[in-house]
């Protein structure tokens, strides 16, 4: 531990001779935080990520370094909340080489995009792509099942001369329900719902989903064989695991009956429908009947074209333009929101200390690492940068992170994880200087909607507690009722809320801690 903490001791010589003048910017820290968040969201717009991932050269395209010949042989399918915009851009790039397509998108999405002036994310009137809306309230329904059947039919008709472009984004699993007969959609939904209620992990849920689905777990890729399959993926899952995003329809995976039965037994689901038992009784790993086909890895290429990491990278560029030095902590912050808030509060105090911070701060930061999904190395690297920024006097620093923390529901108020995180971080920052001399924290969901509210998140600083007290707002009561949206709405007429409107994308959340230049005491 002593060796780790030694990384953060001041370098007195550099602090005396290596000072740099910070870039001047007349914007407030609050305005700069909002601008950086907007840049992060803009980087993962559905049309943007597709345009940046496909390079068209006459009658061929290059995707992720691989060249594919176009001979009016391109077919397109897609499923997910952001897929409509992805498909519109893909068709614009591919032109008349696109033969036809089918996409499954959320109910009402076309009308919503029109109402918000997002026409560039809509298909043209003469489009060759059929749009099918379904999955009301983000739940699989008969409309989504019909779309899945249309997608499966298109894929099954392809030959070795065809190229299938698959577009996938968050929400794709609910928009691609295709239970193996004789299982009904309702029966499959009931099994997975009961498992989720019993505490099954996302990995366990996907094990069961894949076993009971025609298209999940590589089923779509298998259905499209012998055509070449290229999947472009906008990830909304920590770590971008291909088998978990939309349950991996283009990622071949073996699911054995014993695995599924083990999950059902673990959560005491003894009374499953007869149709489920029937399917499990005749289940074999997909492709087992024709290994020569499914073992050809070149048949499928999966490419993550948008993710939280992409958003943070663009946010970092924006931060530099605004006069800050960026440091990315991690794109995979998770765990209880209280632990995450404590982590950011400690890092703020570490960075804002006018003297060498006590070693207890770094020790607690490292202890919190496993609870919030951040590696010790990333924490050490981040504290080293923050420490150097303070001791070498290079000016303002911006800590960037992303992920998806969780909130324990104890009340019935309105809010979401981002607003609650901002509220809790505000409490952690209590006692630090106010902006522009003190830090500012922002937490926002890139989908533009934090829980059942119109806000994506909120912005906070060390003056939150006193501001709330002066306006008669009891922060602890709002937290106990999970009522962060109501709190921020009432506080100073909602000025701290982050309301970007319809963002048309989702790569989880963005967190940022803006730290102004800190005058230090050199002894």
Q: What structural class do you assign from the helix and strand content?
A: alpha/beta
Q: Flag low-confidence runs.
A: 1-24
So how many helices? 21
What radius of gyration results from the CA coordinates? Answer: 25 Å
Helix amount: 40-55%
Query: CA-to-CA gap between the ends?
Result: 25 Å
Strand content: 15-25%
Strand order, largest beta sheet: 6-5-4-7-8-9
Give the CA-based shape.
globular
Q: Main β-sheet: number of strands, strand sense, barrel status? A: 6 strands, parallel
Please explain how this structure is put together.
This protein is of the alpha/beta class. Helices cover 41% and strands 16% of the residues. The chain is built from 21 helices and 15 strands. It has helices at 2-5, 12-17, 29-43, 46-53, 83-94, 109-115, 142-156, 185-197, 202-212, 219-224, 257-266, 274-281, 291-294, 308-321, 337-352, 359-372, 376-392, 417-428, 464-470, 475-480, 484-490, and strands at residues 54-57, 60-63, 66-69, 74-79, 98-106, 129-134, 163-168, 228-234, 300-306, 325-328, 397-403, 440-445, 457-461, 497-498, 509-515. The longest helix is centred in the C-terminal third of the chain and has 17 residues, at 376-392. The model is unreliable at 1-24 (pLDDT under 50).
């Amino acid at each position: 531990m002593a060796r780790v903490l030694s990384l953060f001791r001041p370098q007195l010589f550099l602090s005396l001779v290596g000072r740099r003048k910070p870039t001047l910017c007349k914007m407030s820290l609050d305005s700069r935080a909002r601008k950086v968040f907007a840049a992060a969201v803009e980087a993962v717009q559905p049309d943007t990520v597709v345009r940046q991932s496909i390079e068209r050269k006459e009658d061929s395209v290059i995707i992720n370094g691989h060249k594919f010949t176009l001979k009016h042989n391109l077919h397109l399918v897609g499923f997910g909340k952001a897929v409509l915009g992805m498909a519109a851009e893909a068709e614009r790039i591919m032109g008349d080489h696109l033969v036809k397509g089918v996409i499954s998108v959320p109910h009402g999405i076309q009308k919503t995009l029109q109402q918000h002036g997002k026409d560039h994310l809509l298909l043209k009137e003469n489009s060759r792509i059929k749009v099918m809306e379904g999955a009301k309230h983000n739940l699989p329904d008969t409309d989504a099942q019909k779309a899945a059947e249309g997608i499966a039919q298109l894929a099954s008709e392809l030959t070795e001369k065809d190229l299938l472009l698959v577009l996938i984004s968050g929400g794709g699993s609910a928009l691609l329900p295709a239970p193996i007969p004789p299982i009904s959609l309702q029966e499959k939904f009931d099994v997975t719902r009961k498992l989720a209620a019993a505490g099954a992990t996302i990995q366990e849920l996907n094990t069961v989903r894949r076993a009971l689905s025609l298209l999940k777990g590589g089923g779509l890729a298998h259905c499209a064989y012998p055509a070449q399959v290229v999947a472009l993926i906008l990830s909304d899952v920590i770590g971008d695991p291909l088998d978990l995003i939309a349950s991996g329809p283009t990622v071949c995976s073996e699911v054995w009956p014993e695995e599924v039965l083990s999950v059902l037994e673990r959560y005491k689901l003894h009374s499953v429908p007869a149709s489920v038992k029937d399917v499990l009784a005749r289940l074999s790993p997909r492709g087992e009947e024709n290994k020569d086909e499914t073992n050809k890895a070149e048949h499928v290429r999966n490419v993550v074209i948008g993710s939280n990491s992409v958003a943070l990278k663009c946010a970092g560029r924006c931060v530099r333009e605004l006069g800050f030095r960026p440091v990315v902590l991690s794109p995979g912050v998770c765990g209880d929101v209280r632990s995450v808030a404590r982590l950011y509060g400690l890092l703020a105090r570490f960075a804002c200390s006018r003297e060498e911070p006590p070693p207890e701060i770094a020790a607690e930061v490292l202890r919190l690492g496993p609870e919030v999904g951040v590696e010790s190395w990333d924490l050490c690297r981040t504290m080293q940068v923050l420490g150097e920024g303070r001791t070498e006097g290079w000016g303002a620093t911006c800590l960037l992170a992303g992920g998806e923390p969780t909130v324990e529901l104890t009340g019935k108020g309105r809010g979401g994880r981002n607003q609650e995180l901002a509220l809790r971080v505000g409490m952690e920052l209590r006692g630090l200087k106010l902006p522009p001399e003190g830090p500012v924290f922002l937490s926002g969901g890139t989908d533009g909607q934090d829980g059942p509210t119109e806000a994506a998140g909120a912005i906070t600083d060390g003056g939150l507690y006193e501001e709330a007290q002066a306006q008669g707002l009891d922060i602890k009561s709002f937290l106990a009722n999970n009522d962060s949206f109501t709190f921020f709405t009432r506080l100073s007429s909602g000025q701290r809320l982050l309301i970007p409107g319809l963002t048309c994308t989702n790569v989880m959340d963005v967190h940022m801690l803006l730290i102004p230049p800190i005058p230090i005491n050199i002894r």
